[in-house]
Amino acid sequence: MSLAQKLFHWRKRVVAPLVKPRFTQLTTGGVSLRGAMHTTAAGYFGCELDGDLSADNEIIIEPGGKIRGNLRGVDFSVEGGIQGDIDADGEVSLKDQSQVRGTVSAKSLLIESGANFSGTLAIGGDERSLALNLKSKA
Predict the structure, then answer these.
(1) pLDDT tens for each residue of 78-102
(2) The pTM is what?
(3) What are the extents of the domains in the chain?
């Protein structure tokens, strides 16, 4: 192995874990899926899913994305609709215009003005029942 190849392999091993995953378009609007889905990629989810979604990286549920099922993964950013439980090892962000019904379990939770949430929260191990209907003041 040449010196250049050794340096490339060393750099790849050291730098690769520090780089955030690149986002890909996992699904797009106008598509309806049934059944469980698992992804190892970080990405955007924009279709309708009747079933559970599990992910090894961050997932962004786009405004047109609607999931009737449970989510399990690292981080979730919700701009669409969820009817089911969200179980995240990291952060859950409920963006403006999102609609979430169910239990949210995460280390941290961010709820923007305009988000609509109804269910139970378990943030940092503390579970509380909560119903929120946040509207923007625009």
Answers:
(1) 999 999 999 999 999 999 999 999 9
(2) 0.76
(3) 23-131
